[in-house]
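> @MW can you paste both from yesterday?
MW: sure, first one:
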Amino acid sequence: MDTTGLNSLGSNAFLQLLTTQLKYQDPLKPMDNTQFVSQLAQFSQLEQLSSINKSVTSSSDAITSMNNKSLANLIGKNVLAEGGTISLVNGNASQTAYELKGDASNVEINISDSMGKIVRTMQMGPQVAGIQTPSWDGLSDAGTSLPQGGYTYSVSAKNIQGLPVSTTTYTQGKVNGVIYDRGSAYLIINGEKVPASGVLQVY
């Protein structure tokens, strides 16, 4: 049975059809009581579903509106969020931050330019588990100053047994804008899109 029509049938139209059916039914062959009660039950369910749908839609719209306002309030503020971007302006790089899930005997940071080319590798040596905040001087491996702009970085770490240590990189910087892409909200930090859901700290 095709239920497309029933799904799109509004409560007013349903009531009108039911009234018309009662008006034009054959007096000698009245509607079966069971069928009549069944139709009334369907009407009641339709009313309840319509009411629930309106309530859910209203609540969803309210939540979306509040989220949009909250994100807009972040513009101009500094945040710490999951990501891996660095902004280099006039030789000054934004702070890097990453978390080691365990103690590491060796930690390596690779910084790449906008084309994905590694321009600097920093050996950090052994580090303990937790959040680390090393600084980058904005220089390449050759010791030359790099052009200002957006860069990305990744962290690899191994423990004393030579096994990989899980890491999470973070982005720190000022929020310059908010955009929405395919239903998800992103903050513009250091010229890059960072998921708004990944914000850990606002300061």
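MW: second:
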Amino acid sequence: MYRIIAIAYIGLLFVVFLFVFARVDQSASQDLMIASSKTMAHIVATDTPAPTIVPTATPSPTPTPQPIGQPVRLVIPRLSIDTTIESKGNDSEGHMDVPVSWSNVAWYNLGSKPGESGAAIIAGHYDNSSGGPAAFYYLSALQPGDDIYVVDELGKTLIFKVIDKRTYNYDLFPVDAVFNDHSGHKLNLITCSGIWDRMAHNYTDRLVVFSELQ
């Protein structure tokens, strides 16, 4: 009888031991999983993010300004003009000097060259000493949109387009507006106009054709 009780008691202890061992093992497994999760979370949290790569734009090279030479030739297709440009400053009275040849035109060398910033000035005779047509006799026929070509001493051809034309009384000529306009890249062509004043040996008006570089 005592032997049976002893065996039953030992069996009970064994069952209790198995139950406790299973709980401990399960708890250890849970602790290990929690620890592993925390470790992974720490790794993710402390992992250094990949750097953002921002491509560097390659700067465009600054174009080298092309030199502008002295103007030597004027071509106006509408007027069938293809003539030499003389370089002139002021005469003895302080006015722009005129070309030596009736068939040539003159560039005002105290101002801008055609193609430079500001207004370049080219003037030409309206008629010659006998009253016949000179270089700019038909200048008034130019219309907005017409082309004017200037060739410089370096062989470069500049194209200007007519934008306006105006006639001014000689005594009221707007010198600053025509000669001292520093905006844009312009070319102003000038010639005589109006009526010949025998007493003053001069025409009463001046015609100005305004053009811009294309």
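> thanks! The chain has two domains: 1-55, 71-213.
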